[in-house]
Amino acid sequence: MTISKPDLMRRQPKQKRSQQRVEKILQAAAEVFAEVGYEAATTHQIAAKAETAIGSLYQFFPDKLAIFHALEAIHMERVTVILTKLMQSADQHQSLPEFIEHTVDIYAQYFADPIPRVVYIQYFIAPELFKLFDETFNQQLIQQFAAFFRQWNPDLAVEKSELLAETVHRTYNALLLNALKQDESKRQALYAELKAMLVSYLIPYTLPQQVMKVMICPHCHSSRLSKNGHRHGKQRYLCKDCGKQFLERLNS
């Protein structure tokens, strides 16, 4: 665990033991913020959760806000790495449904950690607390995804790609925020619906017209299919994930 902004701390831990103590404080802070909320949380609760003396906490952090900013810096660093890897891994050989499924799964796993989860949720509660995340960062993401959509479909106009990217970004954030507040079962169900919605929305725009015919399972929305004979003159498919069969149709 690293903190890329040294001014967020009273002093940087240099010895391994001090680094481990800071890590425990930050992990404990995320858990306390998740349990009682940022406003109600106290540095004494955080120190108790981290099993460290309050004086040790104050050696590194002057107050609760400094701890939160350290968590924000960690989240910024991690999410930047994830975004870079996702963009690098996406190519024309991977179908859009596969990319969407992979992306949603990656973030679902990432937000299982209390540090990014509490920072993400807090942004929608009190964005004024943040030093690194702001609307400028959101606009940068939108531009990145707009350029990414144009790679999928070179015929897509810049203005349209930016509109698609903003719609996806805002909608995804709203639905992810709701999912993170649910129990595990409901959360997973919402992730599945999020994947289906993104696929249905983006397919007509992000693939050139000559390759618009992209088959996905109507039951589980998987793109892992195999041909399974014909019926009534139509191609029949078998879904490798849910095992159900269906007849060929154009997804648009």
From TrEMBL:
<feature type="DNA-binding region" description="H-T-H motif">
    <location>
        <begin position="42"/>
        <end position="61"/>
    </location>
</feature>
<dbReference type="InterPro" id="IPR050109">
    <property type="entry name" value="HTH-type_TetR-like_transc_reg"/>
</dbReference>
<dbReference type="InterPro" id="IPR001647">
    <property type="entry name" value="HTH_TetR"/>
</dbReference>
<protein>
    <submittedName>
        <fullName>TetR family transcriptional regulator protein</fullName>
    </submittedName>
</protein>
<dbReference type="Pfam" id="PF17918">
    <property type="entry name" value="TetR_C_15"/>
</dbReference>
<dbReference type="GO" id="GO:0003700">
    <property type="term" value="F:DNA-binding transcription factor activity"/>
</dbReference>
<feature type="domain" description="HTH tetR-type">
    <location>
        <begin position="19"/>
        <end position="79"/>
    </location>
</feature>
<dbReference type="InterPro" id="IPR041669">
    <property type="entry name" value="TetR_C_15"/>
</dbReference>
<dbReference type="GO" id="GO:0000976">
    <property type="term" value="F:transcription cis-regulatory region binding"/>
</dbReference>
<dbReference type="InterPro" id="IPR009057">
    <property type="entry name" value="Homeodomain-like_sf"/>
</dbReference>
<dbReference type="Pfam" id="PF00440">
    <property type="entry name" value="TetR_N"/>
</dbReference>
<keyword id="KW-0238">DNA-binding</keyword>
